[in-house]
Amino acid sequence: MSTTNGTASEKTIYLGAFAHCTSQQEVEICEAGAIGVDSDGKIAFIERDIGDIPAYELCERQQGWEKAKIVEIKDQGFFFPGFIDTHIHASQYPNSGIFGKSTLLDWLNTYTFPLESSFTDLAKAQRIYARVVNRTLSHGTTTACYYATVHVEATNLLSDICLSKGQRAFVGRVCMDQLSPDYYRDESAETAIQATEACIAHVGKIDPKHHLITPIITPRFAPSCSEGCLNALGKLAQQTGLPIQTHISENKSEIELVAEMFPSSKSYTDVYDKAGLLNAKTILAHAVHLSPEERALIRSRDAKISHCPASNTALTSGAAPVRTLLDEGLTVGLGTDVSGGYSPSILEEARQAILVSRHVAMVDGDAAKLSTEEALWLATRGGAKVVGLESRVGGFEVGMDWDAQMISLDVVSEDGEMDEAENKGPVDVFMWESWSDRLNKWFYGGDDRNTAAVWVKGRLVHTTPKYRG
Length: 469
Ligand SMILES: Nc1nc2[nH]cnc2c(=O)[nH]1
Ligand SMILES: [Zn+2]
Prior knowledge:
The strands form five sheets. Strands 5, 16, 17, 18 and 19 form a five-stranded mixed β-sheet that branches. The chain has a four-stranded mixed β-sheet with strand order 3-2-1-4. A four-stranded parallel β-sheet has the order 6-7-8-10. It folds into two domains: 12-81 and 394-463, Roll (Urease, subunit C, domain 1); 83-386, TIM Barrel (Alpha-Beta Barrel). It is 36% helix and 22% strand. It is an alpha/beta fold. It is built from 14 helices and 19 strands.
């Protein structure tokens, strides 16, 4: 069950344990915390050790907070920052898990283009987009970078749905004027630009200051865009200052194709750079097979990378060298890449990042291994940097927005029996675990049953029966 509170938030104090990343290697866990969130959704104060002070006393201690609402973690759980999905195709959600043994280029033709082309049907778009936003919220995703389709009306609908359900979103109308089948492509570079401008104008009407929704310029990937289209989108990005998202260096056949199609460019990365599409607001998904020169170019432009390990494994694209990317100073976040990736969960993606890093380590050595802390950092602070919101979301600090999830863990009964009446989560706590153990048990074993409630900018956007606010 999911209920939402569409009203403006009231002053609220969140009581109980909380955890968040304080650096790429460190998670701070406070066992008895109190976080005050003002009616504008911003964190006003954080107390790290309230001991057993009763809630009413805490309210009286903070001037102006006497009448604050209290939301308390009553069982074994903790507050955690909302997840940031830096790369997800909302339109492909119905195909999650359906990819067989395909690889990128045949997967696009077999599964993806037929589904995306059907978004002329607005009733279908409404149903799918409502579901994917509900589903990602239920997994704790408070910010998502969405690819929609080429269709203006359906893309605008996705923006409307994110706004009404309260999810922070970057919404991209997909541009593709060559190579895809006739039934699914932009007629020309000019129509691709006009359609993109129409989607930007729509967001300008529903959320003019981009409080929650931001349009994002979206050339699908180099092979599906003519040079004219890439150049025009680069110009549009420069004129509007809007962010850009695209795919890069995902699959070896794709890279060969780019080399054939753009012979005057030095590399895949150079294609985007020449078109003015490589800057500090560019999000490049995959980045599996980049050369050292390409990584240096990306770094010099301060462009960002969305690591999509589940998709890279499912489509046999390769294992991205995340340790190398991080060591070279590139900014990295996580992307589910639904439906190249099979899951809408960033927690699952973080686990996959760890497992893929183990496979890289089996070839390149132990230094490639990511830790739980690093994967959680990629899922929160790293993602926030990728989308340019690192001062607002991704952690708990005074002045940041309350984009958060309440994680709830179940305690095993004395006799070990399961109470079938309750919708128990998959993580069992025996009460001998340290807080770090609990965090790891959630990380490796948890799912959306453990996400009791979710807030964006202080607004409650998802709850389960486990939430007792
Ligand atoms: N994973 C993935 N790669 C792409 N490259 C171009 N389009 C796509 C897509 O939809 N998914
Ligand atoms: Zn993708």
